[in-house]
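Pilot study result, target chain (450 residues):
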Amino acid sequence: MKLLNRLIIAFLIGLAAKQTPASAAKPNILVILADDLGRGDYSAFGTKDIRTPAIDRLCREGMTFDNFYANSCACSPTRAALLTGRYPDRVGVPGVIRHTPENSWGWLSPRVTLLPQALKRAGYHSALVGKWHLGLESPNTPTERGFDFFHGFLGDMMEDYWTHRRDGQNFMRRNREVIDPQGHATDLFTGWACDYLAERAKSGKPFFLYLAYNAPHDPIQPPPEWLAKVTAREPGISEQRARLVALIEHMDSGVGQVLDTLDRLKLAENTLVIFTSDNGGALQFGANNGPWRSGKTHVYEGGLRVPGVARWPGRVAPGSRTTRVTLTMDIFATALDAAGLQPPPGTDGLSFLPALLGRCDAEPKRDCYFVLREGGPLFGGKTIEALRRGDWKVVQDRPTSPLELYNLQRDPQETTDLAAKEKTMLRDLSAALRVQIQRGGAVPWQPPEK
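Predicted structure:
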């Protein structure tokens, strides 16, 4: 009988060790989002003119995603996808939300559940530090959409990293209070994030921190000492490229300070950190999108492929990689999975937690859809789209352009349009794309008339 009891106890201990992490202490979740960071603009990628020790540390200590895609090639739609787990046009954000109504192309649906609201069911305290870009007024401000704390910038872009203004308006807030802090925005966001971590370390309860930098979005304004360091280190670098590299390295230093704060507060071991960007880099400012075609505001690979890395010490194998095609909206389902929660009905994203934990790295069977609505004479308020199914991708990169078809396995740089040769595949993917467009069309993307 004693032997049997010992065997039962040993079995139960072994079973407990195999349980998912969500069955133990709920992890803290930290999502760090860069703004316009190119797929190749960090040194672990192999880029020679840039030094990003913090991002490289995450790659070394966690899992790198070789095929991480932003949900759109511009800011607001990807941010909406991250926080809702849905395709952005299905939550009313097919395009960029701006403070000028005549040039604003989205309105976040008040009916959809955001990640901080969903995490409340598991006792999470949630904060957004940095750039919101999903609405400037009620009902679409961060604390009205589930965040317990907001310290950052409501708008789309700052015209100056030190004065933090947009068309002369101040969109910096602490919760709902208008503030006018002094300093470079990257330094402010880093400091506020570290302050929040110190506060939550005292509580002992799980937290979700969404740290959304506005770097390296234009204007390309690195602190002078960071620019001087790059130009001294990289002889022959162009002034344009040097400024962007310096701005990215300055942001990376902020990421490093946040990681060091997790270590100092003994939070790192139970914190899932996910780092990515909202879209590809802007080529006109010298971004490096790796070998892929084009960049920001285009639905070719260079506008959609972004850095992606996740670290969870003791859970995610250091230095691991996955080829799984992953979208920004998958972060929503993954965070809920890690917290032991089921995603709400209508969620489009899929959890990549099994891949992180080494349990399953199978490619999800799904179409991946990308959209951007924009104004100006080039778009005229219309949309561009792309849809990927397996190795095949159909693209309409401008509203008046014909559909293009590429096989990404054979032609990852999208150099050879196969639309005329592969008519059956073009027909099938075009039909699938129309279904996605119809689904998005069911959701209003402008606020109701007052």
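One observation from the pilot: The chain has two domains: 25-356, 368-441. A full batch analysis is planned for the follow-on phase.
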